Each structure stands twice: as C-alpha cells, then as structure tokens.
Fold this protein.
Amino acid sequence: MSKIIYNTLEYKSMHYDPRNDQRPLPYDPFKSCTVPRPIGWLSSVSLQGVHNLAPYSQWQNLTFDPPLVMFAANGYPDGRRKDTVVNAEQTGWFVWNMATWDLRHAVNRSAQAFAPEVDEFKEAGITSAACVDAPCLRVAESPCHFECRYLSTQRFPGNSYVGNVDVVFGEVVRIHVDDAVVTDEGKINIPQVKPIARMGYYDYAVIENVFEMRIPGEQAAADGLEGRSGS
C-alpha cells in the first residue's frame, strides 16, 4: 500500500504489476474496473448445423463507418477454442443479440460450457428467429440484433490455456430493431429495453436510467457522435 501526498491531502492506494506481482486482493480488480461492459450474446451455427448461443463480456463496437465489432473469447482449460470462434471462422458469420433484464436467466443458462453438439437455444429455453443474410439464428425475444460477417481473428497467447484468447472481428451487415422499443422521435427506448451489462465478479448491472450531455459546438454532430441518420 503506497501513500500519495497531493495538495496537502493524503490518499492511500495500492499498485501492482499484474504480469509479475502477486495480486494484493482476493478478487481480480482488472475485470471490475472497465465497467459496465456490454454483453456479446452471440449466436452461430456449426458446419454440421448445430446452433450455438453464448454470452461474452469482452464485446464492443469499434467504429460506425462501416459498423465494425469485435469479441474476445478465452480458451477452455483443456486448450479447446470456443465454439463461437470456430463457427464464425468456418461459416463466415455470427449474430449479436441484445441481452436484457427480461432475458437475464436465459443469458446465464447459455453461459454453461455445453458440448459442441448441443443446441443451446433449446438449453436456454428461448425461441429462435431466422436471419436475413446469416445462416445462424437470432434470439426471437431479444429486441435488437446485428448480423455480422466474419472478417478475421487475432490470437494472443496467455500464461495458460484459459489465458489464450481469440479476438474476432466482424462487420455488421444487417441490423434488426423491434418496432415496439422505438420512441416517437426514432431512438431506441433504453429504459424500456433494460439492457444488462457485465460488472466483473458475478455482478451485473441493468440500465434503467439515462441522461443526456451535449458537447458544446457543432463539431460533435458533424463527427457523427449524435448518431443521427446521415451523419
């Protein structure tokens, strides 16, 4: 524990090198600092036609022009790669399904490590809907979906099989939004949808309240930060 003197006030803080030092806390703070993290509830299909569904807490959009996304999938303790990664590489597709408060139990059930031949839509107890472009299925109860065309995989080695990670990149080629969750002004009604997010540990958060902050000046809208159609 180190002490920092700043403007005559004394603060206490810990610091450590996660590569070499023994962790000073019983629970890893790394996973609970970058929060909240959107959940990549991803569906895919194998070459044998088995439908897969699994949540990933390292998921994010990268840019909007064109819309690109990524997810990171750590390996299994025995060295196997995640089915979602294999399916995306072999079929060229994966689908993101928005994870919501109403679907939280299905999301949690689909997090189990099922065998590759198991249909995880059935195990999660949810219904499926066909995609337009992708060969895999969507979660019918989810209000928003991205059909993603696979682009590439960047593999990083870890200190163990679990540490090995595949970072998968995709391009969103079709977006689905349920009309029931769109406001009169044409925005997704986030407080109504109540997306859930990962907080580290076994903790999650639900988005029920939103607030707006506009950046001064006109450049923000020109840069596409507002998300208005045509920007």
